[in-house]
Request: fold
Amino acid sequence: MTAVVDNNGVVQERRLVTEIPGPRSSAMLARKTDAVSAGVGVSLPVFIERAGGGVLVDVDGNHLIDMGSGIAVTTVGNANPLVADAVAEQAHAFTHTCFMVTPYEGYVDVCEKLNQLTPGDHAKRSALFNSGAEAVENAVKIARYATKRSAVIVLEHGYHGRTNLTMALTAKNMPYKEGFGPFAPEVYRVPTSYPFRDGPHDGKEVALWATTKIEKEVGAHNVAAIVVEPIQGEGGFIVPAPGFISSIAEFASANGIVFIADEIQSGFCRTGDWFAMDHEGVVPDMITTAKGIAGGMPLAAVTGRADLMDAVHAGGLGGTYGGNPVACAGALGAIRWMEENNACALARDIEALMVPRLQAMAENFPQIGDVRGRGAMLAIELVEPGTRNANASLAADLNKYCHQHGVLTLTAGTYGNVFRFLPSLATPKALIEEALTILEAGFEKLT
Ligand code: PLZ
Reply:
């Protein structure tokens, strides 16, 4: 079989030519230690020189299968030609004007696409920002402005970013919050549905615990917004029980609360639908997007009901770089690729390929307590056999095993015991199979 070669010459195969990390990466890592803040960590210290499709090539010439997509960003494949060409063309035309000073069409094009693709066919508006955290902050600003209320409700295990407000919205202390307080006020955390750990509760029942807590401890009339990830990402790819999300959304609607779906990790075909809320049949009042939106260019957005988005005074929203023209060009290229290649079906194909193999592994290895996720957002939760006790050390050891064998994997979870898979939708199927074979060998060796 001849190897598949990606557009930019990257051979789509796993190929190890040195140990991991190799000598050139190790030398660069030493420079990193001297030059870069120690607060900026690295999961796998191989320095990347080129990447295409689902493969990362390091400076030593190792080819790694990328099962992380830069944390759910290169959904359309790394260096996707539609993204790369649009970015290059835009960079030659102009790189920046600041949309708030003199506008340009690409920004409007992206907003039109977002208004069209996000759940619901009501009148919508969008605003563009640079990072996921910035989008979440702005969604909360808009909700507070429009409702004239201040409280914000978030869920156990939620993750929404690292800025001051979004640290407050994020559940997990280490590494995100430790030592960085005090945090923004008026943020309240309520229970979420975590079927593996809650037991087999009806999603509606769990939602009632959450909404009762809101009523009794906060007062629904004080709440501006409820911010919810439809599948929790950093928290451990937690898929809530059916009925949970829709019940929370109904409660929000009944109480004049803005329901904000944080689809920064789950959006843009990642879960086999354009947005994970499509699967829930829920139309959020506002949705935050980033990551997969622009094939690796930094771009984020808030899309929401026109009456909410237009409530804010002119000049109340913005930022120097938000909706940068080069990033917008990248987004239009990425969205075109998703539309032309039926990317949602590609994500469902990945689920169909991976879930049976992960379930078969779970039969053999009692350390796999749960297999879950949707589309190309999948995970296994590792436990001590016969219990639900988190097995974070096995997750770390398996991660290391995969890395040393040329597969970039990522962990997640409040307890650090979730092994997550976020391959690009452009990854050749054979490489995904191979990554699973390596993982299985890791289980054989380490358990
Ligand atoms: N909301 C649902 O997943 C980013 C974080 C990586 P930014 N998740 C990856 C890390 O350790 O910093 C994320 C998310 C959800 C918001 C964010 C924040 O997006 O672009 O990282 O700010």
In short: The longest strand covers residues 368-374. The pocket of PLZ is lined by residues 71, 131-133, 136, 159-162, 229, 233-234, 262, 264-265, 290 (CB under 6 Å). The longest helix spans residues 343-364.
